[in-house]
Amino acid sequence: MLVNDQVRRGASDCRSCGAEGSRNAHQQVDEVDQPSDVQVISAETGRVVGRIRLTSKVPGKPLASAAYPRRAVGDHESPPQPEIRNVVVYIKDAVYRGVLPASRAELRQEHETFIPHTIAITRGSSVDFPNGDPFFHNVFSLSRASNFNLGRYARGLTRGREFIKAGTVKVYCDIHSHMSATILVFDHPYFAIPEVDGTFVLPAVPAGAYTLVGWHERVGERSEAIRVEAGKDTSIELTVPVPVEGDLP
Q1: Whole-model pTM?
Q2: Which residues in 147-173 are b (16+ Cβ under 10 Å) and which e?
Q3: Fold of the domain built from segment(s) 46-93+193-249
Q4: What is the mean pLDDT of residues 197-211?
């Protein structure tokens, strides 16, 4: 009788082990069938490495971007801002499935000028607007992507704004009508502002075919088709016809 009881218990234990093993196997299959989007994105990426060249199609000095004549503060002029730094390079209509990295940028107000004139950020990022002039400023925008008015504030103070919608945001000063700046807000991280020599790098771009854009507020978009291959650099030179005093070498 004791032997028979041991046999029956052994058979029952085997059936339990089999059922548990089956459940574990199904669970493992379910886990394999649900891949992470982040892993898929990071597995097949390459870089876009290029250069922006500004070329003048019309003679003369740069076109003034202000609607009214500039007024210098005392005997000081605003610091020069290279025109190439007003270009933004980005992949058009890119789809990003990860969590967008937020940042905090700055548009300083100095000598009645926004410095820098152009910045690019991801959706969800914030921008600070410190006042470095010895008088009041009032930063505002009426853009669809962000409509705001920060009110008047004095030298040494700063006010900020979070940008939760992608798009182009034109920024002005309600007191000094000649002041303007542009903020490009993106739904993806595949963008850059070129270095002074025109070079740029877009890292970790998923493999595939894209349209690469060089944007400047005076001429809009200039684009080229590119193909990014995993583990490789895609090289490109893009020309943007912005009137400048002299082309980049």
Answers
A1: 0.75
A2: ebebebbeeeeebebebeebeebebbb
A3: Immunoglobulin-like (2.60.40)
A4: 97
